[in-house]
């Protein structure tokens, strides 16, 4: 039915009648059909015109009055307020752009192989989470207490760090832990030493926090401690220098900790893929030498999946308390379902199984990759991790080679991307974990064809 106002009732519509009226009224004001100062019929009269109960029109008027569209004047009636029509912003949806790399074979480093179907251990963990009720309120900002205890046992067993739950903080991964640490402990202008070449995301994090970056050269054993100058913090990858693969020997580790104690510097240990060694067992983590001076960062990104966005930070109890207090105010910590699943995977032994399975598979892939690429340069970093680095002759242009590979359907990272100020040979950083075995063969065949034409 229709009234003297531009309002109609559609009883077949799913929207309640009073909301229909309010919505039509707003539209009439915005398009100028109802002007400011227009006197409205009473709720009784409008209900009679529309053939509805007075409670419907009264509810519509109440809603419009609350929103400021109409006002009542004592002894005069109800009127349209002076609402200036506002033209809505027209948002043009950008054309969908498909991922340019989606159809390419990738040899990018740092991403594990993800099987097309989940295995039983993965499914068991999520079934266990589905049977639990979530916490009644906000959970602990440092992480689920049971998960922190399980992680303390885990890093003590596999990385030699003597710690308890009070030393563990659950993170969304290595970069999240690093950024949290820089936010809480560093001030703009502080100096941070970072390996060169080194991890790009660590450099970006330092720049975002307006820190002064000190580039430190590396050699076949990792960070050159004797090249360190004054810095408030040092970011280092001692178990498998990223991207060249050096392993910081014991003598140099001790020298680095002594340097940090002498200067008061904070050592940030990124232990991103120490689980995967193919020659000998990994050296104990740097943090086991001095948990007061070292903050240890671990992640599931290389063992299970970067999509989990889960990791851990191990530090002194005072540091963990400080970081947790900040997170309690910012609300920035991993959600309960992900933490509960991670706990289930640790208790069930699924993480250990995934590491053992991955170590066997990646060792075979590493051997094949090295055999295929060794004629084209010097291979370094092959003893661990999910990638090798192929050092090319000095006259090679790794950026041009990477571009040619992409044109041929293969994504590979040029070593030049990881260098900043310290000179060194060109090269390619080649991840062998991500593709299937057949795709790895295809990608390496394409790459060798390009290297042969160099």
From TrEMBL:
Coiled coil: none annotated. Residues 15-83 form the HTH gntR-type domain. The keyword Transcription regulation applies. Gene3D superfamilies: Type I PLP-dependent aspartate aminotransferase-like (Major domain), Winged helix-like DNA-binding domain superfamily/Winged helix DNA-binding domain. InterPro entries: Aminotransferase_I/II_large (IPR004839), HTH_trans_reg/aminotransferase (IPR051446), PyrdxlP-dep_Trfase (IPR015424), PyrdxlP-dep_Trfase_major (IPR015421), Tscrpt_reg_HTH_GntR (IPR000524), WH-like_DNA-bd_sf (IPR036388), WH_DNA-bd_sf (IPR036390). GO terms for molecular function: transaminase activity. In the C-terminal section; belongs to the class-I pyridoxal-phosphate-dependent aminotransferase family. This is GntR family transcriptional regulator/MocR family aminotransferase. It comes from Kribbella pratensis.
């Amino acid at each position: 039915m229709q009234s003297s106002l531009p309002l109609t009732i559609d009883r077949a519509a799913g929207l309640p009648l009073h909301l229909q009226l309010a919505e039509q009224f707003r539209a009439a004001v915005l398009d100028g059909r109802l002007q400011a100062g227009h006197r409205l019929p009473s709720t009784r009269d409008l209900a009679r015109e529309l053939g509805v109960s007075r409670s419907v029109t009264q509810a519509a008027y109440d809603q419009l009055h609350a929103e400021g569209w109409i006002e009542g004047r004592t002894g005069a009636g109800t009127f349209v307020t002076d609402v200036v029509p506002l033209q809505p912003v027209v948002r043009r949806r950008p054309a969908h752009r498909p991922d340019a790399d989606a159809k390419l074979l990738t040899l990018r480093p740092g991403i594990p192989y993800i099987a097309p179907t989940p295995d039983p251990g993965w499914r068991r963990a999520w079934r266990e989470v589905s049977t639990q009720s979530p916490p009644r309120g906000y959970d602990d900002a440092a992480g689920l207490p049971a998960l922190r205890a399980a992680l303390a046992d885990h890093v003590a067993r596999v990385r030699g760090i003597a710690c308890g739950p009070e030393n563990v903080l659950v993170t969304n991964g290595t970069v999240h832990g690093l950024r949290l640490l820089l936010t809480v402990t560093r001030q703009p202008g502080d100096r941070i030493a970072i390996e060169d070449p080194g991890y790009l995301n660590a450099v970006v994090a330092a720049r975002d926090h307006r820190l002064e970056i000190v580039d430190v050269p590396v050699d076949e054993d990792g960070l050159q401690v004797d090249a360190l100058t004054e810095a408030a913090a040092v970011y280092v990858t001692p178990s498998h220098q990223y991207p060249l693969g050096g392993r910081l020997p014991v003598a140099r580790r001790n020298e680095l900790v002594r340097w940090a104690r002498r200067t008061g510097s904070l050592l940030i240990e990124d232990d991103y893929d120490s689980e995967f060694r193919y020659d000998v067992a990994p050296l104990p983590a740097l943090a086991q030498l001095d948990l007061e001076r070292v903050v240890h960062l671990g992640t599931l990104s290389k063992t299970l999946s970067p999509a989990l966005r889960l990791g851990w930070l191990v530090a002194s109890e005072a540091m963990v308390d400080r970081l947790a207090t900040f997170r309690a105010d910012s609300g920035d910590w991993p959600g309960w379902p992900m933490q509960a699943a991670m706990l289930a995977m640790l208790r069930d032994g699924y993480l250990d199984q995934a590491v053992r399975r991955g170590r066997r598979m990646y060792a075979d892939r590493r051997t094949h990759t090295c055999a295929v690429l060794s004629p084209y340069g010097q291979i370094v970093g092959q003893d661990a991790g999910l990638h090798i680095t192929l050092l090319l002759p000095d006259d090679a242009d790794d950026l041009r080679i990477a571009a040619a590979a992409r044109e041929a359907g293969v994504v590979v990272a040029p070593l030049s991307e990881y260098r900043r100020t310290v000179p060194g040979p060109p090269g390619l950083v080649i991840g062998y974990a991500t593709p299937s075995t057949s795709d790895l063969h295809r990608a390496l065949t394409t790459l060798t064809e390009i290297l042969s034409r160099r």
